[in-house]
Amino acid sequence: MKLAMVGLGRMGGNMAQRLLQGGHEVVVFDVSPDARRGLSEKGALAVDTLLGVVAVLETPRVVWLMLPAGKVTDDAVAALGAALSPGDVIVDGGNANYKSFMADAAKLAANGIHYVDAGTSGGIWGLTEGYCLMVGGPEEAVAVVEPAFVTLAPPGGYAHVGPAGAGHFVKMVHNGIEYGLMQAYAEGFELMRAAKEFDLDVHQIAAIWRYGSVVRSWLLDLTERALADDVELSTIKGYVDDTGEGRWTVQEAVDRAVPLPAITAALFARFSSRDPDAYQAKLLAAMRNQFGGHALHAEGGAPSAGGSGAAG
Predict the structure, then answer these.
(1) Residues marked as catalytic
(2) Burial (CB count <10 Å: 0-12, 13-18, 19+), residue 219
(3) Side-by-side strand order, sheet with 25-29
(4) Which one of 68, 176, 208, 211 counts the least CB within 10 Å of its CB?
């Protein structure tokens, strides 16, 4: 099939390349001339403007967006919505909020334009391994794009999970689960490193857990790769960012009264990582000193003497 890929970053560029390898005709646009040139050299038809993709596609047109959620995507959807025709399809493969997506899908549907949400997982490995695709939208629109979905996904890695918004909702929960899994691995490996009496080789343990263990996973494979490069992680700062999906997942849990203690704790752990000198930690230490006389650790110095209180 012929389709356009808009946004040629780490995900979009590799997805366009995988589609080309699968025999599809791919029109590409990105604000970066270098990104456009790189895909053009691989066989894509590069255009210089967003609306340029509309001119070179045949109906029903398919325009796939791999753009940052928020204003960038909103502006692109608004521009395309004014230029496309009834029966055309816009696919959003970014990490958008499903509620905002559903509102935009309803507006586009009023003009006969389909808006399909493709929750996309696979990261930088998707080019070779394929992308897991969680797709939401009307049946007739999903059918138009399905040849591309099948090419992008590994066998068994694509499903039409429900109506518009369902794809982004499932991807949101997927990323929330990812937070919890990553946090559990991180805590377990830190505990093993703290057992100094055993002198454990945590890279070796990560490696053997990949075979036959009930905790084996692709995330563990990636953990083993990271530890193989530098078991001390000496060049990495312990600052863990989040891009919104974990927050949305926790908020959904609150709104629906569904308990998510592990995912919520994992999200808060990421927040904690960003402040090595957190005021709340200082206040906790001060309270312990007040009620129990526990030693205070001054910055750059030894613990100060405390009282003899037994409370902890």
Answers:
(1) 171, 178
(2) middle
(3) 45-46, 25-29, 2-6, 62-65, 89-92, 114-121, 132-136, 158-162
(4) 211
Q: How far apart, in whole angstroms, are the C-alpha atoms of residue 101 and residue 62?
A: 17
Question: What letter does residue 94 receive in the DSSP assignment?
Answer: S
CA separation for the pair 79, 82 (Å, rounded): 5
Residues in the chain: 312
Report how far apart, in Å, the C-alpha atoms of 278 and of each of 135, 179, 224, 246, 275 are: 41, 22, 31, 22, 5
Find the distance separating the first CA and the last CA of the chain, reported in whole Å: 67
Question: How far is 255 from 210, CA to CA, in rounded Å?
Answer: 37
- The per-residue pLDDT for range 44-62, each reduced to its tens digit, is 999 999 999 999 999 999 9
Instruction: Residue 46: count other Cβ atoms within 10 Å of its Cβ.
Output: 20
DSSP annotation of 160:
E
Cβ atoms of residues 175 and 263 within 8 Å: no
Segment 229-286, tens digit of pLDDT: 899 998 888 889 888 899 999 999 999 999 999 999 999 999 988 887 888 878 888 8
Which amino acid makes up residue 109? A
